Amino acid sequence: MKESLNKNLQNPMENIDDWEENLIDRYPDPEEPKKEKEAFRNYVDSERLDTVREFYKINHELQTYDFVCKKETEFLKFDRKEMSIWEAVDFLNTLVDDSDPDIDLDQLQHLLQTSEAIRADGHPDWFVLTGFIHDLGKILCLFGEPQWAVVGDTFPVGCAYSDKIVYPEFFKANPDYTDSRYNTKYGVYSPNCGLDNVKMSWGHDEYLYQIMKDYLPDPALYIIRYHSFYSQHRENDYTHLMNEKDVEMFEWVKAFNPYDLYSKAPVPPNAEELLPYYKDLVSKYLPETLKF
Ligand SMILES: [Fe+2]
Ligand SMILES: [Fe+2]
């Protein structure tokens, strides 16, 4: 009983993708006219907003520099599971939300909608592949990790938190907020030291990057590693830590973001029909199995 209570406190959102729904409210699609919502939807949305807010409260309090170091030691040994991309997709897809089957797509659908929208715009094949795999790191949830250590906007730790990060007031409860090693503009970093030298809050982005780093071209790796770094790719508030290469590569991160947020197709892609194309694509770039 106590354990399940603790689990619920750690996982306030009904579905980890509620965070992404909330992102669309924060950064609406400029091409989509504002829709009038029905009263019922408004009610559901406001309930959801409360849980997302609760989620960020925990996330901002607990994502410290030390916490990230601890998770790196724990997960970058990759000793949990060896899987092909297809096994990883199946595994991730066991994370379905049955509370709201009408609205929420399964994880494979989100991946395919993202990648198919990229493909439809004629982008290079590595970009399509990136769309297809970008959220596989969310299998961290299935390894028992709490929501606040898997999803949510990511941000640098080890230096002052930007007030452009959603709900910045919640950082006041983070011990690093008052730690003089970590609470100045540069903290443990130096001007334009490059993001490769900067620790980001721990989650699905960094985890998948570390798994993929030997196999994909740089722009793909930047997309995977920084796609939730909204305070930079949307708000440009950490340019002082970036080097020239980062600035150049972030054009790709920015190009990717609308596909991630706004690619919900009215007719969901047919996974079975698309499978042969994706099998070829995956085997062009990735080894048969990967260590997670
Ligand atoms: Fe993601
Ligand atoms: Fe995504």
Automatic annotation (TrEMBL):
- What molecular function terms (GO) are annotated for this protein? inositol oxygenase activity; iron ion binding
What ranges does the record list as Polar residues composition bias? 1-13
List this protein's GO terms for biological process.
inositol catabolic process
Protein's cellular compartments: Cytoplasm
In residue numbers, the region (Disordered) covers 1-35
Question: Is Ubl conjugation a UniProt keyword of this protein?
Answer: no
Instruction: Report the superkingdom from the record.
Output: Bacteria
Which InterPro entries does the annotation name?
Inositol_oxygenase
Among the Pfam families in the record, one is MIOX
Keyword annotations from UniProtKB, A to Z:
Cytoplasm, Iron, Metal-binding, Oxidoreductase
Q: What does the record give as cofactor?
A: Fe cation
Write out the biased-composition intervals (Basic and acidic residues): 23-35
What's a single GO CC term here?
cytoplasm
Keyword tRNA-binding tagged: no
* Protein name as annotated: Inositol oxygenase
User: What organism is this sequence from?
Assistant: Algibacter lectus
